[in-house]
Amino acid sequence: MLKTIPPLDFDDISDMLVTLGAHASPSEIHGYLSGLLAAGKRLSDKQWLEEAQVLIDADNEISPANQESFICIYANTLASLADENCGFYPLLADDAHPIATRLSCLATWCQGFMVGFALVEKAVGDLSDTVNDALHDMAAITRVDTELEQDDSNSAQGDYIQLVEYVRLASMSIFSEYAQSVATPAPAKESDTMSVQNLFRNRQLH
Q1: Do 164 and 92 contact (CB within 8 A), yes or no?
Q2: CA distance 24 to 75
Q3: Domain ranges, ordered by start, for the chain
Q4: pLDDT of 143-160, one tens digit each?
Q5: I need a labelling partner for 63 at 20 to 30 A (CA). Which of 15, 116, 137, 176 fits?
Q6: DSSP state of 203
Q7: What number of other Cβ atoms are within 10 A of residue 136's Cβ?
């Protein structure tokens, strides 16, 4: 585990992907990788770079300089998921972006997580109720694309923050359950992993 986990910067990674002519977003890549790791998948640098090249579907090959960046993304994601201080955060656009953009990034991240997790689901075996519920809620988040997108009020901002926190805690909880060979972060409290539907009990999900 890294002693100091360097932060990932959404805009820097986005700029790198643009130069590569990639057809994937930072959130999609990070969500996909998080799903793989949470399910217990581990990759060498060479394996991850090959996986990343396919994932980003880029017009150009990943250059040696950018290879280091992708390796850093892998190391950061694994280390933060295993962080006993719960330092994991989904890679999303920051609050300088409109809430519609941030919500789109969160939906894309959740979709990537589910795809990455599903690729190693058979190796994981039967899923617990906790994991099934978390994946179901992530699927619901990918469809929250109407009222919250169009509402830039403080209430909408608060709802978005709660969604991000739910996804953050759910991801660490899944990692803790299926990747204990790497680390065993403290499980999230039941109150922290409330259903997404409860977060939006006063809103209609579409």
Answers
A1: yes
A2: 20
A3: 10-199
A4: 875 455 555 567 778 889
A5: 116
A6: S
A7: 13
| Confidence at residue 4, expressed as pLDDT on a 0 to 100 scale | 56
Per cent of the chain over pLDDT 70 is 77
Please name the residues in contact with 203: beta carbons below 8 A apart, sequence gap of 6 or more: 147, 148, 159
190 contact partners, CB below 8 Å, separation of at least 6: none
- Say which CATH class 10-199 falls into: mainly alpha
Q: Is the separation of the CB atoms in 174 and 121 below 8 Å?
A: no
Q: Which residues contact 198 (CB under 8 A, 6 or more apart)?
A: none
CB distance 159 to 141 below 8 Å: no
For residue 100, what is the DSSP state?
H
Tokens found for residue 53: 């090249």
- 113-147 pLDDT per residue, tens: 999 999 887 665 678 888 889 999 999 998 875 45
